[in-house]
Specification:
mainly alpha; Arc Repressor Mutant, subunit A; Tetracycline Repressor, domain 2; 2 domains; 11 helices
């Protein structure tokens, strides 16, 4: 990686954390420059506007969604008895891997914040970088779980997104109990989503 490429990546990673903490509208380019320990002019050099920088974060992390799509495509038989389990693993595991790194987890938290922000529809992130993948998972669920009621597949997918994205916030569990149950979290999450899909 070149020096310029390294600085660009450093800016993106710093921006992930600031945006995750402050939200899109609460974040300034100057805050990101401070967090990245670079001059504001360098941030503007690589990313002309805040929106350009924001979208670039998600584009840089698009490999995660591509891995999810690849895992989904690798499922040999969507009619198999364990197809739902395989779909859920394809959906969750590349994201849960982010939770193992204290730097990467900020992106998982940013995805939650973007999805929950009513103004997100004004930005080309969810619609362009997440919805195409979502449609593939929805169609896979339609095959694996035929005969569900109208609206089930779309809402079930979105409810699954909610459970997955919220799982990036261990602090919420600490408000309820002294333990975080971090080691059990991933298995509990998958089991929860699978049960909801099968019995919803």
């Amino acid at each position: 990686m070149t020096v310029a490429g390294g600085r660009r990546t450093a800016i993106l990673r710093a921006a992930e954390k600031v945006f995750a903490q402050e939200g899109y509208h609460g974040t300034t380019m100057r805050q990101i420059a401070v967090a990245a320990e670079v001059k504001l002019s360098l941030v503007v050099y690589h990313f002309t506007t805040k929106l350009e920088l924001y979208v670039a974060i998600f584009e840089d992390r698009q490999y995660i969604n591509q891995e999810r799509i690849d895992r989904l495509a690798a499922i040999p038989d969507l009619h198999a008895d364990d197809a739902v389990e395989q779909i859920v693993h394809a959906f969750t595991d590349p994201v849960l891997a982010l939770h193992n790194d204290p730097d990467d987890v900020w992106f998982a938290r940013l995805v939650f914040r973007e999805g929950a922000d009513p103004s997100s529809q004004q930005r080309p992130v969810i619609s362009e970088l997440f919805d195409p993948m979502a449609r593939e998972f929805i169609e896979a669920l339609r095959v694996a779980l035929p005969g569900k009621r109208d609206g089930f597949y779309h809402w079930a997918y979105l409810f699954s997104v909610g459970a997955l994205t919220l799982s990036a916030f261990d602090d919420r569990v600490r408000n309820l109990t002294e333990k975080t149950f971090t080691e059990q979290k991933h298995d509990i999450l998958r089991s929860y989503i699978i049960a909801a899909l099968r019995h919803g």
